[in-house]
Amino acid sequence: MTVRKYRSVAEMPGARPRPPLDPENIRIACELSELAFALRPWHLEPGVSKFRSQEQANRHRVARERRQIQDRA
């Protein structure tokens, strides 16, 4: 196996695409999900929230995401 040197990451070839419907794909996806949760776990507030409109629900979601970001900083 030869070793290739690249000047930048842009010159490096990308990962080969996975074959569709390969059972290995689900294992990789689950491992990536576990890694993402381990690196940055999410915390859901208990209960149900009701909104009068989609816009109000979107504003609530954005505000909740901002609070989570500020709490982690």
Commentary on this structure:
This protein is mostly helical. The chain has a domain at 47-73. Helix content is 49%, strand content 0%. The chain is built from two helices and no strands. It has helices spanning 23-39, 54-72. It starts with 22 loop residues before the first helix and ends with a helix. The model has no long low-confidence stretch (mean pLDDT 89).
Topology of helices and strands:
Blueprint: H1 23-39, H2 54-72
Quick summary:
The protein has 73 residues and is mainly α. The protein has helices at 23-39, 54-72.
| Oligomerization category of the chains in this entry | single chain
Please compute the radius of gyration using only Cα atoms: 20 Å
Quick one: overall form? elongated
Q: What's the mean pLDDT score?
A: 89
- Weakly predicted, low-confidence segments: none
- What amount of the residues lies in strands? under 5%
Tally of individual helices? 2
The largest sheet is: none
Which structural class is indicated by helix and strand composition?
mainly alpha
**What share of residues is helical?**
40-55%
SSE string, helices as H and strands as E: HH
* Total beta-strand segments: 0
What distance separates the N and C termini?
44 Å
